[in-house]
UniProtKB/TrEMBL annotation:
Homotrimer. Its EC number is 4.1.2.21. It comes from Undibacterium danionis. This is 2-dehydro-3-deoxy-6-phosphogalactonate aldolase. Belongs to the KHG/KDPG aldolase family. It comes from the Bacteria. The keyword Lyase applies. GO terms for molecular function: 2-dehydro-3-deoxy-6-phosphogalactonate aldolase activity. InterPro entries: Aldlse_KDPG_KHG, Aldolase_TIM.
Length: 211
């Protein structure tokens, strides 16, 4: 596994969040997201049989795809994800014990933050990126202010509620990518629906990158 999160984000800096996905559909859904250009996919642990789904994706998706878990709350859950081959830990909070558990296993970790205090504590514990969650709590004007004091190399990823036409304002404020949940995938969506959604985000990002 590459130990640099940026390498997985460099093709398309978008992380797919497949909350509520079922084992019998996870590979097909994840493959279409991968084919659209995504290289980071997480399955929140409050999805049905999430650990089994993560194992399936690790086994069946190309090795240049970073697979992991979201809504990780404890060090024990970090170990569970690692055991089935997941290498990405995404959290809704900034519990430094969870961050350190992930880093001790050479995993990539993106904790959720809503304040600068949480952000600096997470970075000090070894966070590879900051998940600005929910994105409404860190609007572009706030992120722009954060960037004046955060280390220049800090990867900031707004998560939640950002639609394709909302990428620009966050990028202008200093975001390097995004985590995409229900606007990308909703439980029960078909492969075709997910592909259309994924394509819309990829097209929006590429248009932004070329501007």
């Amino acid at each position: 596994m590459n130990s640099n999160l940026s390498s997985y984000l460099s093709p398309i800096p978008l992380i797919a969040i497949l909350r509520g996905i079922q084992n019998n559909e996870c590979v097909a859904i994840a493959r279409t997201i991968y084919d659209a250009g995504f290289r980071c996919i997480e399955i929140p642990l409050n999805s049905p049989d999430a650990i089994a789904s993560i194992r399936l994706l690790v086994e069946q998706l190309p090795k240049d795809c970073l697979i992991g878990a979201g809504t990780v709350m404890t060090p024990d859950q970090v170990a569970d994800v690692h055991q089935v081959g997941g290498r990405l830990i995404v959290m809704p909070h900034a519990d430094t014990a969870v961050i350190r558990a992930a880093k001790s296993l050479d995993m990539l970790c993106t904790p959720g933050v809503a304040t600068l205090t949480e952000s600096f504590a997470a970075l000090h514990a070894g966070a590879d990126a900051l998940k600005l969650f929910p994105s409404e709590s860190v609007p572009p004007s706030v992120l722009k202010a954060w960037r004046t004091v955060l280390p220049a190399q800090t990867i900031c990823l707004p998560v939640g509620g950002v639609k394709p036409d909302g990428l620009q304002v966050y990028v202008d404020a200093g975001a390097q990518g995004f985590g995409l949940g229900s606007n990308l995938y909703k439980a029960g969506w078909s492969v075709a629906q997910v592909r259309a959604s994924a394509d819309a985000y990829v097209l929006a990002w590429r248009a932004l990158a070329m501007a």
